[in-house]
Amino acid sequence: MAGGPFRVDHGGLIDRGRPLAFRFDGRALTGFAGDNLASALLANGVRVVARSFKLHRPRGIFSAGLEEPNALVQLHEGARVVPSARAPVEPLTDGLVAHAQGGWPGAGFDVQRVLDLAAPLFAAGFYNKTFIWPGWKFYEPLVRHLAGLGRAPREPDPDRYDLRNAHCDVLIVGGGVAGLRAALTAARAKQRVILVEHEPQLGGQARWDGSTVDGTTATKWLSQVQRELTAFEGVKLVTRTVAMGCHDHNVVTALETVRTGASRDATAGPRERYWIIRAARIVLATGAIEQPLVFANNDRPGVMLAGAARRYLACQAIAPGRRVVIATNNDSAYDVAAELHAAGVTPLAVVDSREDVPGAQSERMRRLGLVVHSGSMPIDTSGFGALSGVEVARVSADAGIARGGSGALYERRRLRCDSLLVSGGWNPALHLFAQAGGRLAYREECGVLVPANALRDVSIVGFAAEAAERGVSGRRISPHGNTARQWVDLLHDVTVADLELAIRENFTSIEHVKRYTTVGMASDQGKTSSPVTLEVTARLQGRKPAELGYTTLRPPFVPTTLGAIVGRGTGERFAPRRTSALHAWHESHAGIVEDFGEWQRPAVYRRSAIEARGAATRRECRTVRTAVGVFDASPLGKLEVHGPDAREFLDRFYINDLATLQPGRVRYGLMLSETGVIFDDGTVVQLAPDRLLVTTTSANAGSVAAWLEEWRQCEWPQLRAVVVPVTDHWATLTLAGPSARGVLARLRPECDLSNAAFPHLALRETRLLGAPARLARISFSGELSYEISVPSDRAVTTWEALMQEGRGFDIAPYGLDAVLRLRTEKGYLHVGTDTDGTTVPDDVGWGKVAASKTRDFIGRRSLTLAENCRPDRLQLIGLTASASFPVGAHLKLAQSRDVTDGWVTSATTTLDGQAVALAMLRAGRAHTGATVAVHDAGRVTMQAKVVSPVFYDPAGGRMNA
């Protein structure tokens, strides 16, 4: 026949006038426009397209959709290689190059098939028991070579990807009749609609099954509806797009295939686009997934889902074989039999496991001259490279035994065939519903998982809602046969025997069974294995499937290209360098700009090419201590929290008491994780009764914002508060030193700068140089200091005005090197430097503050754990010595037998030449005045004295001046 030996010479939706050449495993083949890779391979009689994951058994095309477990192939070549692509959903393009995955020298003849003879050695969990000695790394190269799930490209990906955020009133997943009806209803109600469909065309099954809709042909109805929908301005119809996952607050991620093939045309657009869709309401028109039958050797090439064969016949005019047997437990397969007969491919028999086949179906088959074997099912198949025959038998109807239970076999017969079409019923595709928080329940009478509750903003329509009601299914698990050859998960090579072993190993939870056997894991997520796994496991445990629950259905629904998730965030965009509004000024004034976290910041300003960095830093420190310096603190994290409950909300995050915070006053505080560990430090100021300003460390600005938002949305949605990140909106200039007040006064802010009117730890909202400004007396240096926050577009003007007015005060800019030296002298905490993932408030001298707060806060309960109350915990202390300290050096107490008693976290040399350091020392405060040995590179370098961590102006007179 034209287009391949298994191509029917009439019908289908292909364009027979547009032949397409492609290659599979080096073999030149031809298909037609409208084919996918799977249909083109079937048309050309290619039966073996892959080798199984574990045992290297030959595998053929099993389905016609995203659920395909077998036909995972390698597409393209070179840098554009795509591993594990599903052949049924890969459109055929001219020049397409594809290869089978696994098998040596190829999938057709694979010497590694010998592994099948040693199958008992590779039972469930074998790797946990086998690869203990000498270790996994020893076996890993061999195992990865044998597994055969594709090869990742070694060259950089030349394609580009895109990311799109979208909002809508109604998101509809599925573009069949039900989905289109939902879209039409919402569009007519003037709602914004996004409809995503994974197929290239809308219409679903109605596009090819010859059905009627609302009294007219489906084709005509679909055309009318699409015309009406595209006329609405607020409607987006997005095809070739798979909804990957449903997340909190109706956020749905989807993957759109924009460009197929291996085109190198840079103007052809992105290869894929990743959608993040936020919807007020979600409608799931996701249909149902046909389930297999389980019997011995049910994995041979030639065994295919009946619904898949029907689709290949209707869409691509493919005959599944020359001698076809149909095995089913429900009514849907009878349509397949009738349509095959009409196409000239008369099935040999229909094998139905139900004793009482509906009379209408029996009569229908009788008129076509087809034999129906009721109460029967396949029990084994034969063939080496592909299917050559099937053994069927009648199964006694034991009413008290589940469909998978035992029963006597009789009337055995062997049928020679090259195609066995199976249908074990239809399981609703409810992955997104479950991910949205919906619960599922196993329905015994039809053997599928159905919704067990309703979600307020998620509804299910169409076949997904009706599949369980379309007739009662019969038995789908053969009661006899070699269970080591009865496959329940084709993708992961999991058999009934593996489930039996899991039960013998005492894995009772269905989630534990899943992990031990790998059934339904990875990219499959139980699409064609969940219901049958529940049935088999329940039978082995002597329970009902509904009692087992079900395994978690995780996103993504199908494998997702990492490049699509990243989108354009590669290269310089992967971690964009952030610069302040003063960045150009710093560079033009000899600032040494370096990366500090995600920001580029000046470390130091050199006055000449020969001035050493250390000398420049000492000069800047001296300027701040004796005159006045100005520092760009714009990267300081800034968040505003608005709302009637703003203060109550923030009070739950800080160990400080915010209930007594007065307007215009600043309070320094610590924020903890749930484990009681110090997460961040910063300040809180009340700008108004319903408006507070939070400052964070520069590195944690994003993390704190996300932390507050998570608790606001997920734990305390009843609190009326909104978190607004404003770091980029305000430039912050720190003016520090004894002359700071004099310089600031020359800019004439509209507020009183006197110490009595504007004390330390106060904030004033005012105007400066004709623009709004916030002045805060906060010091990280120990000197009189003002943090001057102005709109970012006023940063350069304000900075240059300070430099101009400060000339008479010997003003100079200072960088981050000087900031860190000054704060170390003052003993100020640097979270992440002087703390680690175990540090709690008492370790840094804040235990009494946390204990005195009467209201609850995040992490409070963890502070009472015995581990966090030990007297020998690492505590922050100061050190002095005759020579400079190496940061990271270890400390040893006299008479200690421990490997280490602590380490140096920060170190500097004061302006008067004193070497000082901050350190974490075991029971450190109790050792004040003692001497410790400093170990560096495995040797004692010096002795140091334990002192208070505050080395400069302990009374705080200078910053309170």
Mean of pLDDT: 93
Return the CATH topology of the domain at 290-423: FAD/NAD(P)-binding domain
What is the CATH superfamily label of the domain at 290-423? FAD/NAD(P)-binding domain
Number of helical segments? 22
Going by CATH, the architecture of the domain at 290-423 would be 3-Layer(bba) Sandwich
Q: Tell me the helix content.
A: 10-25%
Query: What overall form do the CA principal axes indicate?
Result: elongated
- Terminal CA distance reads 97 Å
Low-confidence stretches: 399-405
Strand content: 25-35%
Q: C-alpha Rg, in Å?
A: 36 Å
Count of individual beta strands: 50
Mind sketching the topology for me?
Blueprint (H helix, E strand, L loop, with lengths): L14 E10 L2 E7 L3 H7 L6 E2 L6 E2 L12 E4 L6 E5 L9 E5 L25 H5 L5 H12 L13 E13 L3 H12 L4 E4 L15 E2 L2 E2 H13 L4 E4 L2 E7 L3 E7 L14 E13 L3 E3 L12 E3 H11 L7 E5 L3 H11 L6 E4 L6 H10 L3 E3 L1 E7 L6 E7 L13 E8 L2 E5 L2 E3 L2 H5 L4 E4 L4 E4 L6 E3 L2 H4 L20 E3 L4 E2 H9 L5 H8 L12 H12 L20 H5 L11 E2 L3 H6 L2 E6 L2 E7 L7 H14 L2 E4 L4 E6 L3 H6 L14 E7 L5 E11 L2 E6 L4 H15 L6 E4 L4 E7 L3 H6 L17 E6 L2 E6 L8 E7 L3 H11 L6 E2 L2 H11 L20 H6 L21 E8 L8 E4 L8 E8 L5 E8 L8 E6 L2 E9 L14
Parallel strand pairs: 1-7, 8-9, 8-15, 9-12, 15-28, 17-24, 18-19, 18-24, 19-20, 31-33, 34-44
Antiparallel strand pairs: 1-2, 3-4, 5-6, 5-7, 10-11, 13-14, 14-15, 16-25, 21-22, 22-23, 26-27, 29-30, 32-33, 34-40, 35-38, 35-39, 36-37, 37-38, 40-43, 41-42, 42-43, 45-48, 45-50, 46-47, 46-49, 47-48, 49-50
Helix pairs in contact: 4-5, 6-7, 7-8, 11-13, 16-21
